[in-house]
Amino acid sequence: MPAALSMVPACDAEEPLLAESSDRFSMFPIRFPQIWEFYKKAVASFWTAEEVDLSSDARHWDTTLSNDERHFISHVLAFSNELISRDEGLHCDFACLLYDILRGKLDESRVFEIVSEAVDIEREFVCDALPCALVGMNGDLMSQYIEFVADRLLMALGCKKLYNATNPFDWMELISLQGKTNFFEKRVGEYQKASVMSNLNGGAATQHVFSIDEDF
To answer: CATH 1.10.620.20: does it fit domain 32-40+57-184?
Structure first.
């Protein structure tokens, strides 16, 4: 047995993702197509600072927003940016995929314990970031939304719902819809870099065909 493997716990050595492989330093052959697909999605959704138009933000900050709204934006600026929201969703989905591949999963009670602790921490943050009620969004509604997101995460991990909460913000559903244009930025957030995802749709298979039947 290699020295490196002797230091790995037996439970970890049985995991497909941690299995010793002589070709682990090369890209091909692809052992986990779903993980490769998530990698290609991450490449396709790469964005630059120039993609986000901030030209009007200073004027809106000085002339449009109230003090309460400025306080909210100062604490949770990323909440209103679709590109960041999309990237965080991609990270979450990828983590759920990795957990699904694992053979040795946590007990459901332990998963509930971790998620409920995270919900409590998020609630504490909301009470600090949202001490004032905004139009259509306040601390209580935000707390309910946190529980709704936690239930969705539990379902993605193969567990039962813990809070059975409903989504208090119907407009939040628009952010997670692929290809939906953000009504704030007036642009499509779910864009793809040219040809990055084409290989996953069988495009490369039809364009690059190896043949030796050519006449010379």
So the answer is: yes
On whether the CB atoms of residues 157 and 96 are closer than 8 A, the answer is yes
Q: Is the pTM of this model over 0.70?
A: no
The string of DSSP codes covering 145-198 is: HHHHHHHHHHHHTT---SS----S-GGGHHHHSTTPEETTTTEESS---TTSSG
pLDDT at 5 over 50: no
Max intra-chain CA distance, the chain: 80
Q: Where are the domains of the chain?
A: 32-40+57-184
* Contact criterion met (CB below 8 Å) for 97 and 34: yes
Q: Closest Cα to residue 189, out of 40, 35, 44?
A: 44
